[in-house]
Amino acid sequence: MTKQLSLLSDSASASSPAEISRQIRSLLKELPEVRADAARLDALRRLFTQLETDGELSFGTPLPQNAVAVKWQKFLHKSHQTMVRQLCERVQMGRHASIRCLWGVIAGSPTTIRGHANDDKSYKRLNTSLLQEWMNAMIQQETLMDKGMKHMVEAEFLTPFRDVQYYSLGCIVALATAAYGHETTENPRDDDKVEDDDGDEIQSHKERLAQKLLELLMLIPVPASQNEIDHSSQYLFPPPTNISSSNVEAQEEEQNSEKSEEEVSEDEGESSSDDEDSDNDNEDDENDGSTRPSKKQKTEPQFRFVFQRMRTFRREYLRAWLAVLRLPLPITSLKQALLFLPQHVLDYVSHPLRFSDFFMQAYSDHQGVTGVLALDGLFLLITKYDLEYPNFYKQLYKLISSKVLYAKYRTRFFSLLTKCLTRNEMLPAHLVAAFVKRLCRCALCGPVSSVLFVLALVSNLLRKHPECSCLVHRQGSSEMEDLFLPEEDDPVECRALQSSLWELAVLEKHYYPAVGTLAKSIGRPEEDNAPLHVMDDFVSHTYGSLFSQEKKKKTKTALAFQKPESLFTTEDIFAGCLDIARSSSD
């Protein structure tokens, strides 16, 4: 069967239109066996690829004037659409062979872009409609991609080709916009299934689509600089080098007309164009290695396609992320996005502050580790990108509780606390005192590992902010009233600076010796000149690590102060028993 399919597809170039039509109709018939059906689709793909190579089939060009040729082209296009539909149905089932076959269809069915009337030159580019068909089929799968499929999609299709990366971002924007407006491309449901719970079904459907789109978006790499793009030669359809600038401008106008009405960077593109262009000029100068750019280097940006420009890449990347993040994400995907954005996205978009609303909304809607991750992203926007968010430390103060010292995500929360409180030396005294007081209060009923971190952080903060030393060295009666308001979530109104750290005296009597030693050292004069604690040594402490430390300790065994003369001492009840036994034997 496979040999027959191969002969059918290989003989396409030497066959008449009637024979080719018969072959196509034969290959379009679905087969029940999975392997035979996959071989049938692959043979059909090779047949259409050969037709495109021979000029019999083209995409993006006007229909010919001949009526017979028009009928032939319509038949080929309709059959091609049927093949793509069959492949998409199998992609939705998660079949790897169908995914690879559809990639082959995309590679063998480019869109032809022709020049103006007085210019006969043309070039081929990626067929974005087929690319969107594949992505739509991927997000319609019932289950998430496994590791094998993720590696296949990333390594074989998304990572190698720059043009695929760029146009994939645009397809994600289109699919996310359609899902947001409830204009999904899937088949409509039957009317009898639409009941009172239709809103919940639509919401869950949007969440599944958002989860799948986020999966694909996180697999798309983005170039770090214009230099990286210029030295990249891997394109699914290499851009022509002899094309005129008018054709490039026409191609860009066509791409801009295909974008959705909800342009993310429409208002901000003009304000950032100067900065982006200056960055590109600097990078071009670095590539040349001299202070005088050549004439070729000056005119080169005019002939770059949209997928060859760093500015357009960053714009599409921003649009794709904002479009996906508008959708309702399930909690697992929300955590993935909050983790992924600070490390892999914010540095590669033109306006990272556009994500501030997403971080704020994630914090206000969720608590626990999700709120911690959201504040972590906000802190990066504040410190690196000059975001103004006056209530940041108030929101961070609310997260401190006894429960967080036991939570699974306490390591990440401790890292966030360390960054926010130790890297900023301009914090006011009342704010530092509020954090110190609340941490010590929560440490009274916390686990040993968390108590050690709290004491180390409190020690560093008191030494970096001497104006808070009154919390330890406050003069007054021993029965002084504590004015601190533990239930107040505003660090300004909690009156921590009027209180004292009596909690340290309690922790000095802790059952774990290291806690008592560390608590006693806080506030002593000799600690002022000592180096600050390395917080990384305290962040990841657990009961297991503390037990292993205690087991590895080498203690000095005390020697006996009297030389023993017998097995038992004279005060022992068994003293002299062995002497009696020896005398009786004699």
From TrEMBL:
Please state every residue range assigned to the domain named CCAAT-binding factor.
Answer: 372-519
Question: Sorted alphabetically, which Pfam families does this protein's record hold?
Answer: CBF
Q: Where is the composition biased (Basic and acidic residues)?
A: 183-192
Residues of the region (Disordered) are 183-202, 231-300
**Entry similarity comment:** Belongs to the CBF/MAK21 family.
Q: Record's InterPro entries?
A: CCAAT-binding_factor, Noc4
- Output compositional bias ranges, type Acidic residues: 250-288
GO annotations under biological process? ribosome biogenesis
Designated name of the protein:
CBF/Mak21 family-domain containing protein
- GO CC list: Noc4p-Nop14p complex; small-subunit processome
